[in-house]
Amino acid sequence: LSTSDEQDLVVIGGGPGGYVAAIKAAQLGMKVTCVEGRGALGGTCLNVGCIPSKALLQSSHKFWEAKKHFAKHGIITGEVSVDVEKMLEQKQNAVTGLTKGIELLFKKNKVSYSKGWGKILNPNTVEVALSEGGTTAIPARRILIATGSEVTPIPGVAIDEEKIVSSTGALEIKEVPEKMVVIGGGYIGLEMGSVWGRLGSQVTVVEFLDKIVPTMDSEIRRAFQRSLEKQGMKFMLKTKVTDSEMADGKVKLTVEPSQGGDSTELEADIVLVSAGRRPYTAGLGLEEVGVKANERGVIQVDENFQTNVPGIYAIGDCIPGPMLAHKAEEDGVAAVEIMNGQAGHVNYNTVPGIVYTWPEVAMVGKTEDELKEQKIKYKVGKFPFMANSRARAVEDTEGMVKFVSDAATDKILGAHIMGPNAGELIHECVMGMEYGASTEDIARTCHGHPTLSEAVKEAAMATYSKPIHS
Ligand code: FAD
């Protein structure tokens, strides 16, 4: 990169928001540089988030299947055991292959990649402290902040990434801990808890609220929690961790009721802190250039993803909205389209949320609880996987599909799925909602047989009429 070359756009951060925005910008004819400091593209998602966690979820699921289900299918194995080192290696191979793939995409699309930490000097200059040493200043017509998020710390529980780990450390545990305490019952805690639970840990989830994954439909949530409990996960709801202490290689946590009361102790070999994430904007120079963020550090943007400083834009985890990779990507594409005079838009009401445990849970739109609260008249349709022929054939029958639709028009307002491959099945509901479909539209669409998708069709039928198979 020639430092004197003015760029149409400098993107700070090479995560799913930033790298996708950079590629899209180049495709639309902009001269673009993406600045990334961590030494690899793909951000939190690819390096220490979505991808490595899914790799470990898959490996541990295979182990669980081999241990618990193979015999029922007539597959006889000897004793099944785990080679954690090999499992971590497999995960790392997936990550490395994918990050290298983004570098190739950058080359193909002529996106310049500046390795180092970026700082906004003024609305037209990004200074980069280069990874190889030295600094460079990149003149920019526009700047896009895509610096993502970091773990929110808990007072009294200092992360050392050995005994008290963040999700990053939880992806690198070298041997299966006997006891693991997960602080925070959100999707990250439940996914990582599932990984180590399946491999043999006794996992206890401590959650401040009276429920896990608060954004989930409460009927689905109850079924989901029961399912995790059946797998051996324990839950301490309405409980807060106030202190931690290291003794004899163990962590002792002090816990007490969220609203205060007598404290007790919990012992663990590993503690995972997963009580939320917050925008990461340290060292970015936001205050100096006057970019406004709220008290939690969330950068404020208008409908064009522009901050209060003209020419400086922001997307992804560091702005409002769900902290999810696909939302960051959509933000990135829309922001860049808008910069180029096109009509970019992201509908946050149709961003699906997926928990990749087994069974999976996937959701889009409103929950029944929200509709009640908002006094919107609605209809409900449900269909259990127990009555779906494919689920029966593959012996994966836990869970259900649930629709909520407008009582008067039948327009789909939300869809909630707990079950096998829920994360894939949700997308026809998302698509339906984007097109303003009714549940009848989905029910009258021919679905292949035998598929799990037929459970979606039948739940849709159950919403406006009656299902055939239950
Ligand atoms: P990030 O991915 O955080 O990328 C920001 C990048 O900017 C980072 O690489 C950082 O190094 C870089 N950066 C920051 N500051 C600077 C600077 N000053 N200069 C240069 N570079 C900088 N989401 C899903 O949708 N599905 C999942 O299954 C999922 N699983 C997850 C599992 C875990 C364990 C975790 C932690 C997260 C998971 N997420 C998942 C969330 C997902 O990772 C984030 O929503 C997503 O990565 C946000 O993308 P982003 O581009 O906004 O930021």
From TrEMBL:
<protein>
    <recommendedName>
        <fullName>Dihydrolipoyl dehydrogenase</fullName>
        <ecNumber>1.8.1.4</ecNumber>
    </recommendedName>
</protein>
<keyword id="KW-0547">Nucleotide-binding</keyword>
<dbReference type="InterPro" id="IPR023753">
    <property type="entry name" value="FAD/NAD-binding_dom"/>
</dbReference>
<dbReference type="InterPro" id="IPR016156">
    <property type="entry name" value="FAD/NAD-linked_Rdtase_dimer_sf"/>
</dbReference>
<keyword id="KW-0285">Flavoprotein</keyword>
<feature type="binding site">
    <location>
        <position position="276"/>
    </location>
    <ligand>
        <name>NAD(+)</name>
    </ligand>
</feature>
<dbReference type="GO" id="GO:0045252">
    <property type="term" value="C:oxoglutarate dehydrogenase complex"/>
</dbReference>
<dbReference type="GO" id="GO:0004148">
    <property type="term" value="F:dihydrolipoyl dehydrogenase (NADH) activity"/>
</dbReference>
<keyword id="KW-0520">NAD</keyword>
<feature type="binding site">
    <location>
        <begin position="147"/>
        <end position="149"/>
    </location>
    <ligand>
        <name>FAD</name>
    </ligand>
</feature>
<comment type="similarity">
    <text>Belongs to the class-I pyridine nucleotide-disulfide oxidoreductase family.</text>
</comment>
<feature type="binding site">
    <location>
        <begin position="184"/>
        <end position="191"/>
    </location>
    <ligand>
        <name>NAD(+)</name>
    </ligand>
</feature>
<dbReference type="InterPro" id="IPR004099">
    <property type="entry name" value="Pyr_nucl-diS_OxRdtase_dimer"/>
</dbReference>
<feature type="binding site">
    <location>
        <position position="207"/>
    </location>
    <ligand>
        <name>NAD(+)</name>
    </ligand>
</feature>
<dbReference type="InterPro" id="IPR006258">
    <property type="entry name" value="Lipoamide_DH"/>
</dbReference>
<dbReference type="InterPro" id="IPR036188">
    <property type="entry name" value="FAD/NAD-bd_sf"/>
</dbReference>
<feature type="domain" description="FAD/NAD(P)-binding">
    <location>
        <begin position="8"/>
        <end position="332"/>
    </location>
</feature>
<dbReference type="Pfam" id="PF07992">
    <property type="entry name" value="Pyr_redox_2"/>
</dbReference>
<feature type="binding site">
    <location>
        <begin position="323"/>
        <end position="326"/>
    </location>
    <ligand>
        <name>FAD</name>
    </ligand>
</feature>
<feature type="binding site">
    <location>
        <position position="317"/>
    </location>
    <ligand>
        <name>FAD</name>
    </ligand>
</feature>
<dbReference type="Pfam" id="PF02852">
    <property type="entry name" value="Pyr_redox_dim"/>
</dbReference>
<feature type="active site" description="Proton acceptor">
    <location>
        <position position="449"/>
    </location>
</feature>
<dbReference type="GO" id="GO:0050660">
    <property type="term" value="F:flavin adenine dinucleotide binding"/>
</dbReference>
<dbReference type="InterPro" id="IPR050151">
    <property type="entry name" value="Class-I_Pyr_Nuc-Dis_Oxidored"/>
</dbReference>
<keyword id="KW-1015">Disulfide bond</keyword>
<feature type="binding site">
    <location>
        <position position="118"/>
    </location>
    <ligand>
        <name>FAD</name>
    </ligand>
</feature>
<feature type="binding site">
    <location>
        <position position="54"/>
    </location>
    <ligand>
        <name>FAD</name>
    </ligand>
</feature>
<dbReference type="GO" id="GO:0006103">
    <property type="term" value="P:2-oxoglutarate metabolic process"/>
</dbReference>
<keyword id="KW-0274">FAD</keyword>
<feature type="domain" description="Pyridine nucleotide-disulphide oxidoreductase dimerisation">
    <location>
        <begin position="351"/>
        <end position="460"/>
    </location>
</feature>
<dbReference type="InterPro" id="IPR001100">
    <property type="entry name" value="Pyr_nuc-diS_OxRdtase"/>
</dbReference>
<keyword id="KW-0560">Oxidoreductase</keyword>
<keyword id="KW-0676">Redox-active center</keyword>
<dbReference type="InterPro" id="IPR012999">
    <property type="entry name" value="Pyr_OxRdtase_I_AS"/>
</dbReference>
<feature type="disulfide bond" description="Redox-active">
    <location>
        <begin position="45"/>
        <end position="50"/>
    </location>
</feature>
<dbReference type="GO" id="GO:0005739">
    <property type="term" value="C:mitochondrion"/>
</dbReference>
